Amino acid sequence: MDGELLTGGGLNQVFRVGDAVRRPAGPWAPRVHELLRHLAPLGIAPVPLGLDGEHELLSYLPGDVGHVPLSDDTALVESALMLRRLHDSTLGLVDRRDGWQHPAREPVEVVLHGDFAPYNIVFTDGRPTGVFDWDSAHPGPRWWDVSWAVVQFVLALPDDRERRTRLFCEAYGCVLEDDQVIARLEDMIQTIRDHPAFVLQRAEGHEAYYVGLIRYLQAKRA
Q1: DSSP secondary-structure letter at 68?
Q2: Which of 49, 85, 104, 197 has its CA 20 to 30 A from that of 27?
């Protein structure tokens, strides 16, 4: 395929062709495109440009992918504010329960991104400016995205975890329980074990890493 091969957090090969991105499209692409068109006024998500059944064409989001220092408090707060804006903007779509890659997760409050993490965010001058890879979007509770963001933005570093977790949650405007983060980690572990596309993650020992985070949270709670 012609174009520049892009890197990020996804499981698919993604190519930049001019000012567009061409990537494989799953059966859920029409529903995701509906979501992206709804989010277009925010200017922080790709805009659908075309869909041919096997591939989708999306607008390109300029910036650096996941290279911001995770210890940067300002980037952490702005990422939390971005997630809150995205969630709040989906309230009109929560009645769309079918057509997503994943089933709706109760209690449904918003449409989730499903994998909100630095590797799916573009940064400009160290600040988050856009979010891509919406394949895992589906209706669900806010804490599902917030907990994964805390795993990736906060728990990925060994220091200052409790303060930075509070900082993220205060910026978003929520209270997050350790049990919720553990539930999100357990789901990720099961995905790594079962999903045929997670071959590299199994080989690199990601499961053991997430098990270690669960043990850390359980010890802190005790």
Answers
A1: S
A2: 85
CATH number of the domain that 163 lies in? 1.10.510.10
Structure tokens at 106: 């109760």
Assess contact for 10 and 133: CB atoms under 8 A.
Answer: yes
Residue numbers of the domain that contains 60 = 1-174
* Burial label, 220 (beta-carbon count in 10 A; 0-12, 13-18, 19+): exposed
Q: Which of 158, 174, 190 corresponds to the end of one domain?
A: 174
Cβ partners under 8 Å of residue 33, min gap 6: 48, 51, 56
Residues 145, 203, single domain; the answer is no
* Residue 45 and residue 3 share a domain: yes
* Model pTM score: 0.93
pLDDT higher than threshold 70 for residue 61: yes
Task: Specify the amino acid at residue 151.
Answer: V
Assess whether 132 and 222 both reside in one domain: no
Regarding whether 155 and 195 lie in a shared domain, the answer is no
Q: Who's near 46: CB < 8 A, 6+ residues apart?
A: 21, 36, 58, 59, 60, 61, 130, 132, 134
pLDDT tens-place string over residues 94-140: 999 999 999 999 999 999 999 999 999 999 998 999 999 999 999 99
